[in-house]
Amino acid sequence: MKDSKKTNNENFSAKQEDLEKNKSDAQDQFMTTNQGVKINDDNNTVKAGERGPSLLEDFILREKITHFDHERIPERIVHARGSAAHGYFELYESMEKYTKAGFLNDTSIKTPVFVRFSTVAGFRGSTDLARDVRGFSVKFYTQEGNYDLVGNNMPVFFIQDAMKFPDLIHAVKPEPHNEMPQAASAHDTFWDFISLMPESMHMIMWAMSDRAIPRSLRMMEGFGVHTFRFINSQNESHFVKFHWKPKLGTHGVVWDEAQKISGKNSDFHRQDLWDAIENGNFPEWELGVQLIPESDEHKFDFDLLDPTKLVPEELVPVQIIGKMVLNRNPDNFFAETEQVAFHPGHVVPGIDFTNDPLLQGRLFSYTDTQLSRLGSPNFHEIPINRSISPTHNNQRDGHMRQEIAKGRVSYHPNSLGGGCPFQAKIAEGGFSSFNEKIDAQKVRARSKSFSDHFGQAKLFYNSQTPIEQTHIIKALRFELGKVETLAIRERMLGLLAQIDTDLAKKVADGIGVAVPKKTEKPMNQGVGADSNGDQESKTVKQAVEKSDALSMILNPTNSKTIMSREIAFLCNDGVMSESVNNMKKALEKEGAAVKIIAPHLGNIQAENGDTIPVDQSYLIAASVLFDGIFIPSGDGIEALKQFPEVKEFITDTFKHCKYIAAEGTGAELLSKVLQSDELLKDDKGVLTSKESSDSALASSFIKELGNHRYWKREKMV
Ligand code: HDE
């Protein structure tokens, strides 16, 4: 009993068609109650006389208010703030040798996906630019059922065992007595917990790097984090690590910028994703896998089951197997982005789990959380969660059941229903768990193979360029600087010293605390049943000591594209229209977006009388919302120096190591604002020309913008 395969296009649109069934459009329609009764007056309640009391019989009022009263559902306990989009996944080459998953076998299948990105700690209404891990959840609507790859933008995690997850989250969330701070890890409870959890050190390096403040959701890598399994049709298993590599490269902002963006536009990432898709700049990622034969399980200097470890790409290269394109924004935020329910346990035949103790805990948590968040075991019937392959079983009833199951049989085995629905044989696509051999004693313990807590933290730190190391040091100075309890700061310095003594010393210098001479042992250390579950840390020498893939700047997948980068043109009445138009044309040809900023909205009048429409005023725009600036030439440009906002625009762009181009009178304004020709002399991130409308300037500006930032400008610590 096998469903016939759909063609490529049929499959791709299958989810879209499925969602259509639930869409409504009020265009040209009467307003009605939820019972379909046309409403005659939606402005007034029924009263006893015009000025009299309202009547309880007003079923229209009661229905409207009751529905309103119940509009909110509990937000996700973690990953509450998110943004999502529809798209598809396409396979480059069949992975049949490793997995029998249909969507990874047949290159002609275009699999619909729904992808949700999120921050972890903040509430639903918090800011996008918090220093935080980003969730990267992909729901593949495959022909064999839904497959969810619920990952993050960092390849490792803070803890090794699910038992510690509630503690980690309680520590990072706002403190319980005063509910502060929002969407921030820079507070005592978080660092208290971390300072007692050496296993978190590798992840802390990632979280303190610029990976935690992405330039865009479209410019982040994604990782499955845990080691999973691919199972082929011969029931052979390979360990697999999943990677998403963004076509636009992996880029971050700087911390000062992130904090300012949070004030200027707390929806910065959400808006960027939405606008990119609306403008046809569909974000793309390639899917990569690291495959490890079952026989190599113990070949590494770390345990594949330990989620605080990554597999260096130098040891196992990432094989690119397909691409994902996001090409459609949701129609309704609540119905889709909010109600989508991911679960690492949503797997299809050909994909299976490992015994990673963090993953094992997750396999319980995600269904459980949907029950309280979405309120019913029928959450799979919500349109965004519905599988495109048919579902039949004997599960029945519950809140808000949509399906009308026919017949008298709701049990198996049965004879009255002809034995239906049938169980599928493995050859018919029935899921069967990998028959891993387990022969063990029941223990509540941590494997000794999990006890290297510093080796990969060192690898990560050593793989960063000096400027990236500087950012990590500054991030730690900021975070620990906000910690009020001295003992916590000291404990953290003790742990950092085990990663790198120079790192610890530099952080210590910034927070006015000395690195402790002796590292205090975290509480309850020891391995085994009498140790309260904690373990001794040891550092293992790594087979790989430096990996460019871990650095955002050296990342081999980074491209130099300026596609969809936003460039601000600082303009005024009296600007030279040729200067504006030529640079605009050159940038737009490369796919960048130009915004004309001026002291007022409406139009500005160019020197030659042309009118140029203004996109944003200086009151609304800010340097932190752009990737670079251009100051055109023109008689009116000098007058911009009287606006403090323009000055701030330029100095912030400079401070955040962004590229600046200026020509003619624009170049004069620039050097006046930055107040030092010396400052600009050796700065290759500032490109100026005495000429107006200089095409050579445009080409070098485009070339440099592709580098993302001119990091040489920033002082190292
Ligand atoms: Fe999650 N996590 N998590 N997590 N997680 C949730 O499920 C949980 C972990 C991740 O866009 C919750 O539906 C436990 C690792 C993402 O809707 C909850 C543990 C990774 C999302 C939950 C972890 C993740 C969640 C909250 C440790 C990276 C957002 C709402 C054992 C691989 C999904 C929900 C979305 C969401 C539990 C650890 C990623 C409570 C118990 C590791 C991207 O079930």
UniProtKB/TrEMBL annotation:
Coiled coil: none annotated. Pfam families: Catalase (PF00199), Catalase-rel (PF06628), Catalase_C (PF18011). GO terms for molecular function: catalase activity; heme binding; metal ion binding. Decomposes hydrogen peroxide into water and oxygen; serves to protect cells from the toxic effects of hydrogen peroxide. InterPro entries: Catalase, Catalase_AS, Catalase_clade2, Catalase_clade2_helical, Catalase_core, Catalase_haem_BS, Catalase_immune_responsive, Catalase_large_C. This is Catalase. Its EC number is 1.11.1.6. CDD domains: catalase_clade_2 (cd08155), GATase1_catalase (cd03132). It comes from the Bacteria. It comes from Flavobacterium agrisoli. It catalyses: 2 H2O2 = O2 + 2 H2O. Belongs to the catalase family. HPII subfamily.
